[in-house]
Amino acid sequence: MRQQLTEYILNQPKKVFILVLVLTVVTAAMIPMIKIDTDPENMLPANQAERLFHNKIKTQFNLHDMIVVGAVNRTAQGIFNPQSLQALLEIADQVEAIEGVIDYDLMALSSVDNIKQGGPGEIEFEWLMKQAPNDQAAADYLATQVARLPLLNNTLVSADHQATSIYVPIADKNESHRIATEIQTIIDHVNSADEYHITGLPVAEDTFGYQMFVQMGISAPLAGLMIFILMWYFFRNFKFIAAPMVVAMVTVITVMGTMIGMGYTVHIMSSMIAIFLMPIAVVDSIHIMSEFVERYDIHAERKQVIRDVINELFKPMLFTSITSTIGFFSLLLTPIPPVQVFGAFVGAGILLAFVLTLLFIPAYLVVLKPESLSSLQNIHHSKSKLSTVIKSIGGFSLSNNKAVIAAFLVVFAVSIWGITQIKINDNPVRWFKADHPIRMADKVLNEHFAGTYDAYLVLESDADAVQQSFAKKLATQTLWHRQFELIEQQENGFKEQLNEMLFWAEDQLFDADAQQAEQLEQLINEIDAVNARLALFKSPTSLAYVEQLQAALQQSGLVGKSNSLADVVKTVNRELHGGDAEDFILPDSAAGVAQTLLQYQSSHRPHDLWHFVDQDYATTVIWVQLTSGDNQDMTAVVEYMDQYISGNPPSAGVEINWAGKTFLNKVWQEEMVKGMGMSLISAFAAVFIMMVVLFRSVLLGFLAMLPLTLTIVFIYGLIGWLGKDYDMPIAVLSALTLGLSVDFAIHFIQRAKDLFAENRDFKLTMRLMFEEPAAAISKNAIVIAIGFTPLLFAPLVPYISVGFFLATIMAVSAVVTLMLLPAMFKLLSRWTLR
Amino acid sequence: MNRTKRTANRRFKLFTAATILALAALVQAQSLMADITAAQIIKQANLASFYAGEDGRSDARMIIVDNKDNKQMRQFVILRKDLEEGGDQNFLVVFSRPSDVKDTVFLVHKKVAADDDRWLYLPALDLEKRISASDNRTSFVGSDFYYEDVSGRNPEADSHQLLKQDDTLYYLKSTPKLAGSVEFAYYTMQIDKRSFLPLLIEYFDDSDTPIRRVEVVEVTEVQGHPTVLKSKVSNLKTGGYTLLEFRRPAYDLGMDDSVFTVRALRNPPKNWLSAK
Asked: Which 8-state DSSP code applies to residue A237?
């Protein structure tokens, strides 16, 4: 059937061209629908439990996406001076007016309340800094005031007094680039000697999206150009090498167009699809064309040459394509949607490239004018300079086979040791280069403040249990029960239902006789008791537990600071009692807490309370500020707290969970490491089985796996040795390495088998192997390795590491294939080639 | 066709009659009140809103609703005694719900010429405390009402302008004399001509965007005084609002001055707290 297809193509090349053209046009038409997605949250599936919980908490407690503006004054005086504060006030006021900024939740010295002692025995709530201080004394006084407010100290103003920040909540994070730009304009127009930084996750994400476009717009075409130049170097014939370029372009356009057309967003991983497919797509073409050049001369019957070439290469090409595809498809086992999309489309792209190569290259070669091909006669790979080097490598490996094997064993051992040194870690801010303004802002602000990375420790009491026990009580009284059923139809929340029931009972009380009144009082008491049980986080014991958790967080050594409802209560309580430090304690009853909070709510910003606790006081949030967004640090905090909590459990029915983006990053990283292990193992097994089937020999199958095993071990050993974090792009590399580096082994072993079958002479086979086959393998390795190098010039770190390591992988696996395989073949010659 | 014409004719007659009536009413209204000034309207409105009777009491219930429909409840009794009509007056606010703030008390000596005096009693902490009242535009116990909405904003703080009037309403615009002392740039009021109660107050920021709205939802007559039974304050920025419902209002109860002393904080006058 394959031969019939080849015949058809050779006779009807135009139909192939039309088919390819239509495919390209249709898919290209979908590319303008592109949607960029830079939200690290999307590393987790939309229905992931931790993500759902995070978003629930985010909504419930109005934890908006924040742009962080930091002002730093490094003089001895610090930020507390009239000029700096005046500038800050002007900037904050103007930022508040920007459209899309949630002004009532904006946090700056000028927009928050102070609670302090007024006149003798008087408590005063006032704006902390309605106007900027007129003189230094007033500025110093302001500093003492901030130091008394634990919620602000080291959050709004750094402990060293050199920096202050404005937290700018925004309604839609897709607007963050515009808003950040407007903030920058405002800063530029305000007269201030202080250095200003703008950062925050939404800004980072937006900037990242922009740079992803840059990368796709520059790196991918650049990769195309590199491949073109290389091929020109190998074949020196523009018309001839146009064919693989067409295959590469059509593959990239079709895959990207289909992906976008299917509604997938372009995430950091999928933005690399083009640059991955480009070099891989030309590999098969290069094999065909090398072989074609080797066999072609002006007198040969061209169709026959093509037929012969395809016949010879079909099997290894099919198998290499399938193994590469398996490598990428194995990423589907990693439960990270962007990685899955990437794996699926690159895998499909490789199969498409294989099909396109078989369709288009023969059709193209057959229509090419004879004079276009005339120059090819002078090129024979087996005579090139590259080939000379390779032959000497082959000769060396064969003559010193034991030493070569021993050397590889040493490398293997050293690499294994390197792997044990690997640090699993990622941090989306580190995706920017060290000199990027966002990285700089991040560094500066975390130096001064107690941390700009937020995570939330959430304590939830079991409201359902309270509700059920109340329902049981009600069931004893028909009238109450009926009334409550009526209320349940109108009100949604249990707390509101209770309130309505209470209102009803109190209204009834007005016209009740003595006996009814007694019953109603009983009901009212019952409702009060239920309310008290619901409002667990008004109780001093629960708040004391929150305090304990905060102390533990601090002891973990990785948390800069934490804020909680307990801090709010203690601060207000202290000021109510006269402002002495010894009164910075929790009141001794729930009513005391409630009455303290009633005062807190009598401020300019009563809604601030709901960032810490819900209206039912059944759920409370501890804000945790980390100075590092590294997943390993977040992991350490989580583990430390798990241990603490298991030793000091909360009261019955209270559940403790984490939320916050820093925590989510940790979650997807763990999923990824686990998933990648699965991907790697299953791809390894699948490829091994394929190899055994292909070569009909367990030994050859084992040999085919050697180069890739050694390459993977070496690469990860290298990462361990270099001290580079095992992050998302690095994790993805394992599957790629597997799929790509087995290619060389397949070609090597298959060709060696074929040659040996012809001449039945091991030495001759090996000599012939280092003629055309080894040259084609090295050429492919070089094309792919060089093809990825434009990634080194990308503006974002993940691209750079992928570029660097892929080039290394290609080089290493080619070297391993060309050195280790002949050495092993010789060692095992009695069994390998028979 | 004939019928349509007849109907149209009748409509025209009705319309003409209505117009004539309306015009007549307008002419009459204008001739009666042509010379009323903004200052007079404001004075009347202030009296109607905050000085009905010599003293008064009411049960009050607040439902504070945020933009996600979360609700909080406050229930209290509010007592008032005027020292001078349109001048200084005293307020006592005693909380009954939520039960954990029961018997929390606010005492306010409102002064027209100076800062108010304010005291607070928190029973659970057994704590009496003076509260600085330098800023009256802070939240009243976490609601969207400000202290000033409860006790009344000094009419002298703003300059008032009568924009227009129609059959039922005066339309005023008021601008604070001390710009920057408050969170708004100006506010507009629609004052009912009959009762002189402001039915709608809207606060605007510098860019003429409404940021806050105070509405009267229900009015009734109590002992001859038009009395607000339900009002609503909306924070147009946060999307939250607060409903305030008054129940069992009564005037001229003959309250004693001792009801409004600091001593009353710990022992609020039981006889005025529950409605008779």
From this structure: -
User: Is residue A88 classed as helix, strand or coil in its secondary structure?
Assistant: helix
Q: CA-to-CA distance for A403 and A397, rounded, in angstroms?
A: 8
Q: Distance between CA atoms of A59 and A63, rounded to whole angstroms?
A: 7
Residues 526-555 of A with CB under 8 A from B: 528, 531-532, 535, 538
Kindly state whether residue B8 falls inside one of the protein's structural domains: no
pTM greater than the 0.80 cutoff: yes
- Distance from the A92 Cα atom to the nearest Cα atom in chain B, whole angstroms: 15
Domain that holds residue B237: 43-272
Is A607's Cβ below 8 Å from some Cβ in B?
yes
The CA angle A150-A155-A156, to the nearest 5 degrees, is 100
Nearest to B124 among A577, A587, A601 (CB): A587
Residue B74 belongs to domain with CATH number: 2.50.20.10
Name the 3-class secondary structure at A610.
Answer: helix
**B-chain residue closest to A101, CA distance:** B237
Instruction: Identify the burial level of A380 via C-beta atoms within 10 angstroms of its C-beta, where 0-12 means exposed, 13-18 middle and 19 or more buried.
Output: middle
Chain A residues with beta carbon closer than 8 angstroms to that of B142: 598, 601-602, 606, 609
Helices A661-695 and A49-60 cross at an angle (nearest 10°) of 160
A143-174 pLDDT per residue, tens? 999 999 999 988 899 989 999 999 999 998 88
Kindly state whether B154 is in contact with chain A, defined as any CB-CB distance less than 8 angstroms: no
The CB-based long-range contact list for A642-650 (8 Å cut-off, 24+ gap) reads A644/A549, A644/A552, A645/A549, A648/A548, A648/A552, A650/A459, A650/A542, A650/A545
User: pLDDT 10s digit of each residue in chain B, 276 long?
Assistant: 444 445 545 555 555 655 655 555 555 454 445 568 889 999 999 999 999 999 999 999 999 999 988 888 899 999 999 999 889 999 999 999 888 999 999 999 999 888 889 999 999 999 999 988 778 888 999 999 998 898 889 899 999 999 999 999 999 999 999 887 888 999 999 999 999 999 999 999 989 999 999 999 999 999 999 999 999 999 999 999 999 999 999 999 999 888 999 998 998 888 888 776
In a domain, B37, yes or no: no
Task: Tell me what ipTM this predicted complex has.
Answer: 0.86
The partner residue sitting opposite A607, judged by closest CB among B137, B207, B238, is B238
B247 touching chain A per CB within 8 A:
no
CB A328 within 8 A of CB A739: yes
B258 domain-assigned: yes
A614 Cβ under 8 Å from any chain B Cβ: yes
Which residues in chain B have their CB less than 8 angstroms from residue A602's CB? 138-142, 147
The answer to whether the Cβ–Cβ distance between B132 and A598 falls below 8 Å is no
Helix extents (H) in A154-237: 176-189, 201-235
Chain A residue numbers with beta carbons less than 8 Å from the beta carbon of B125 are 573, 576-577, 587, 592, 595-596
Taking a contact as any Cβ pair under 8 Å apart, which residues of chain A between 23 and 62 contact chain B?
59-60
| Whole-angstrom Cα Rg for chain A | 34
Beta strands (DSSP E) in A603-750 are: 619-626, 655-659
Q: How far is CA B167 from the centre of its chain?
A: 22
Mapped onto helix, strand or coil, the DSSP state of residue B260 is helix
Domain count within chain B: 1
**A601 near B CB under 8 A:** yes
Judging contacts by C-beta atoms under 8 Å, the chain A residues touching residue B66 are 607, 610, 615
Burial B220-241 (b: 16+ CB within 10 A, else e): eebeebbbbbbbbbbbbbbebb
Q: CA dist A596 to A567, B97, B100, Å?
A: 12, 15, 11
Q: Measure CB to CB from residue A123 to each of B131, B135, B240 and give the nearest one.
A: B131
Residue B38 covered by a domain: no
| Contact between A97 and B207 using a beta-carbon 8 Å cutoff | yes
SS3 B65: strand
